[in-house]
Write a structure and sequence with these properties.
- The protein has a five-stranded antiparallel β-sheet with strand order 2-1-5-4-3. A five-stranded parallel β-sheet has the order 7-8-9-6-10.
- The radius of gyration is 34 Å and the shape is flat.
- Helix content is 44%, strand content 14%.
- It is built from 20 helices and twelve strands.
- The relative contact order is 0.09.
- Helix 10 packs parallel to helix 11.
- The longest helix has 19 residues.
- By secondary structure, the chain is an alpha/beta fold.
- The model has no long low-confidence stretch (mean pLDDT 83).
Length: 462
Amino acid sequence: MARTRSTAARFARLLDAAGQPVYALDGAGQIVYCNHACLQWLGVEADTLVGRCCVYSSDASLVGPDAAAAGLCPPPEAQSGRSMSGVVIAASGDRLLRRRRASFLPFADRSGRPAGLVAVVDPTDLPEGEGEAMADSESARLHQRLRAFRRRAAERLNLDLFLGETPAIRRARAQARVAVATTESVLIVGPPGSGRQRLAAAIHYAVGSGSAGSLIPLACSILSGELLDSTIRALSARRTAETGARHATLLLNDVDSLAAEVQPLTVAALASGSFPLRLLATARRPLNELVRAGEFREDLAVLLDTITIVLPPLAERRADIPLLAQAFVEELNARGAGQRSGFSPVALDRLDGYHWPGNLDELAAVVREAFERSSGPEILPTDLPKRIELAFDAAAHPRRREERIVVDEFLARIERELIERSLAQAKGNKAKAARLLGVTRPRLYRRMVQLGLEPDRGEPDV
């Protein structure tokens, strides 16, 4: 036994003398060893890192040893026994990420089951932006993009569900940053499931905006004048207890469903000089449209609509679906529900072919169901709910449209063709054409006028 410990110690000293970072994980994804070069690169101590579990997630809120462990996590395919390479990261105190290429060498126990892996990291950092280009799979590229987005967004807003590069969502993020920088009222417009309430919370609790007060949501679909009045009175009295807070915020959810008889009471309460709260509101339709339709008070719309943020339906930002799906997968990874690298390219095609009536909420539910059904490191088309596959098949094989046959139009086309053929045979002579058709010349002329073959010059019957 002593000889075994001595051999292990010599091997550890050999690895510690290496210039390349080297670390090892056990079968559960826990860090069991990290050599001196790796600890130096990460800027952490061995006793704070060894024993931590690597989670395949790009959570930008992690700091210290937790962030270091997450940055070392290999793709789940490597943890399942596949030799591969990938990109690992070290986060410095100023949140800048240093990326390096790593080779993951898994090993199995005597029964052939994955027992852990050794990772050997290149000694030099990758140039900025090369991490995604060097990824070995679509899910790995999405993982790198997600890391980069979260690093950029973490300093301002928790906008995970509003990530993407389509113009509509970029515009919504820009509008949200404007909303954070002010205490003016904000209206968030979008279809159900688009994340309106999450965005309202992100604006209220935005990092760097000072200490936030309470966020008080009210459901406008059931809001009465008495409830609104009592709520504002209670909050006004409570405001004195939150003097150290930046602002308390009243969130009017689905304000477009506010009953007509409650709207003037709401105006009176909100327009009062003693109203102590910031206003956020959500709606399914723009309030200016409802005002034009006579369904909403203009003075209330003016109070609520200083800044408008429009969240598009998911079907209008399909290019963002792969990145959003990856974000939901990594959120489940972080909860300890398992470790998945993401969706296979074919599965992503299936997601792109769906119409997403439930928007982001439905996508989150679909990812969760597929995650739970999958048995390997990658989520496959067979793991998706049946409705996704059915929608994809329907789009690929659209039902042939039944053509209506209108009898009068059909007969008119036939009659027109017969008249044109008879005129051609008669070289334009209408009398001869009429004889060929077995009708009188006046009747032929009337039908030619009715079918647009002859201008009506009032030719008399003869």
